[in-house]
Each structure stands twice: as structure tokens, then as C-alpha cells.
Specification:
By secondary structure, the chain is α+β, with helices and mostly antiparallel strands. The chain has one domain: Phosphatase 2c, domain 1. The chain is built from three helices and seven strands.
């Protein structure tokens, strides 16, 4: 759209209930973390953002849907938080801490976002988006839910 002058990171998490798999499509140099119970792995193979080259292809990973699986995806704004102070968030350490404290998906996302905002003195230098997806055992009412909040200016 802008002659290759604007980059956009893109992560897509697709849940396929027919095959009981999670497909992760990543056009983002930032890694995606997945946690199964307390074991963490990183999806960090080279991946380019969209917007520079016409034929940019995503990095694709397919995982079995299993109870206890958590996925944490984010934009580069989380990685660059604290840049002005020459500090960074140790994302693997923070995710380990969230797992050990049994934080919910929402609490984990809020924790990471609050760290980023604090490091940038409430003036982020880049946008920050965080998605935390967790597969839980509780079937409850069998309604799938997603929560998104957007502030109005």
C-alpha cells in the first residue's frame, strides 16, 4: 500500500475443532511463546512482517489442542518497551512467573501490558497488542468466548 515503507506484524491463531489443532500463522520477527503446563517453547524461526515485499510468506506452525496449552503472541511494541530507558522486559521470565502464579489468560495479558506501559512511562513509543489464548478443561456452558476491549479517544 505504501511502496514498501510501512511494515506490519501479523499473527493469526486459528483453532480447528474438526482436527483439534491450533494453527499459528506468523509474519512477525517477535517470537510467539507456547506453554504446555509449565514447559515453555518459543516459535522464533525467521519471519518477516508484511508490507515490504509482495510475496512475503508466513511461518506456519500446527499444534494439537490440549488442555493446559497457552499461546502468547504480541507485537513488537512489547519487545521495544523500555527502549528509551535502555531496559527491556524479560518476556520468558515474566511468562514463567505468570504460569507459576496460575494467572488467567486475561491476567497474563494485563501483566505484560502493564509492564510495557510502566517501562515507557505511560507514553508507549509503539503500539502494543498482546493475545493470550489458553485451552481449558472446564466445558462449562459450551459457549466459546473472546474478550476484546478498545478505548475510544
Amino acid at each position: 500500500m505504501r511502496g514498501g515503507k510501512v511494515l506490519s506484524t501479523l499473527n493469526i491463531l486459528t483453532i480447528d475443532l474438526e482436527t483439534s489443532t491450533l494453527v499459528i500463522s506468523r509474519n512477525n520477527p517477535s517470537p510467539i511463546f507456547y506453554i504446555k503446563n509449565t514447559k515453555s517453547k518459543t516459535l522464533d524461526e525467521p519471519s518477516q512482517p508484511v508490507g515490504v515485499y509482495r510475496s512475503t510468506k508466513p511461518s506456519i506452525t500446527e499444534l494439537p489442542l490440549q488442555v493446559g496449552l497457552s499461546i502468547v503472541a504480541f507485537t513488537d511494541g512489547l519487545v521495544t518497551a523500555g527502549y528509551r530507558k535502555s531496559t527491556r522486559i524479560d518476556i520468558p521470565k515474566e511468562l514463567k512467573d505468570c504460569t507459576e502464579r496460575s494467572l488467567s489468560a486475561q491476567e497474563t495479558a494485563d501483566h505484560l501490558m502493564n509492564l510495557a506501559i510502566d517501562l515507557d512511562d505511560n507514553r508507549p513509543i509503539d503500539d502494543v497488542s498482546i493475545v493470550v489464548m489458553r485451552v481449558v478443561h472446564d466445558k462449562g456452558d459450551l459457549i466459546r468466548r473472546m474478550s476484546v476491549s478498545l478505548p475510544l479517544k
